């Protein structure tokens, strides 16, 4: 069972979420709090895996509270305001429930939590965490398994990356850095060719001057990486 608490300054909302938790077999209600200060004191001695957290609260709102938590604590935001969705995404919340929400919506959020905890436990096993075949990438409140062979290229955009995968119309977007994704990709298979691009060397079939061509997409090879890329071409040139 997943040890869970609920935090909401609205008595009826807190009562509803608590009742949902109590009748869900996968969850254990460890506490219900009408303010985040009392909840924080409780968590110092009683860690939990999951928090259903309201956002609009006095003294310390849910966004501020979430920033104080350990990363391993899962969060599902419960709020009446859609405007906080982006902030919830940046804090890597598992889900975002808009009040009033039904028990069926609550269960869907719980299932997402269960899946993520399962993925993380699997990823912590040595045989999965040390491999040259795939990685797990968090995207849109989900954890996606991506096979290295399927990656065509990666594009960096400030705090985000876009992973372009073979036979997918849209890229997989994740709140990650190029530096981190580069460290996870096999170096003999992938190469950084630009500050904003990493390419799968095995997917390259056309090079046009100093540009790598993937269909209608032209990826530039910058001066910083041109020598290394040219060495790769020379080694495989007829």
Sheet with the most strands: spatial strand order: 2-1-3-4-5
Structure classification: alpha/beta
The CATH architecture assignment of the largest domain turns out to be 3-Layer(aba) Sandwich
Number of contiguous helices: 8
CATH superfamily of the largest domain: Response regulator
Query: How much of the sequence is in beta strands?
Result: 25-35%
Q: How would you characterize the overall build of this protein?
A:
Strands 2-1-3-4-5 form a five-stranded parallel beta sheet. A five-stranded antiparallel beta sheet has the order 10-9-8-12-11. A three-stranded antiparallel beta sheet has the order 13-14-15, with no helix packed on it. The N and C termini lie far apart (60 Å). The protein has two domains: 2-123, Rossmann fold (3-Layer(aba) Sandwich); 131-235, LytTr DNA-binding domain (OB fold (Dihydrolipoamide Acetyltransferase, E2P)). It has helices spanning 11-22, 36-45, 62-67, 85-90, 103-123, 126-129, 178-184, 223-235, and strands at residues 2-7, 27-33, 50-54, 74-79, 95-98, 134-139, 142-147, 151-157, 160-165, 172-174, 190-194, 197-200, 206-208, 211-214, 217-220. The model has no long low-confidence stretch (mean pLDDT 89). It is of the alpha/beta class and 238 residues long. The chain is built from eight helices and 15 strands.
């Amino acid at each position: 069972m997943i040890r869970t608490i609920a935090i909401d300054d609205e008595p009826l909302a807190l009562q509803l979420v608590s009742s949902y938790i109590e009748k869900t077999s996968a969850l254990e209600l460890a506490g219900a709090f009408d303010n985040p200060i009392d909840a924080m004191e409780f968590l110092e001695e009683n860690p939990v895996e999951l928090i259903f957290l309201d956002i609009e609260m006095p003294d310390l709102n849910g966004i501020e509270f979430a920033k104080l938590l350990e990363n391993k604590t899962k969060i599902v935001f419960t709020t009446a305001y859609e405007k906080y969705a982006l902030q919830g995404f940046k804090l890597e919340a598992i889900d975002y429930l808009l009040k009033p929400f039904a028990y069926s919506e609550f269960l869907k959020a719980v299932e997402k939590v269960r899946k993520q905890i399962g993925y993380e436990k699997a990823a912590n096993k040595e045989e999965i965490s040390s491999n040259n075949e795939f990685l797990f990438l968090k995207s849109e409140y989900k954890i996606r398994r991506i096979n290295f062979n399927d990656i065509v290229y990666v594009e960096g955009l400030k705090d985000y990356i876009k992973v372009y995968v073979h036979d997918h119309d849209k890229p997989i977007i994740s709140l990650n850095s190029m530096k981190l994704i580069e460290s996870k990709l096999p170096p003999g298979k992938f190469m950084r060719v630009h500050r904003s691009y990493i390419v799968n060397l095995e997917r390259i079939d056309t090079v046009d001057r100093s540009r790598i061509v993937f269909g209608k997409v032209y990826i530039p090879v910058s001066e910083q990486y041109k020598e290394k890329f040219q060495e790769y071409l020379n080694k495989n040139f007829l």
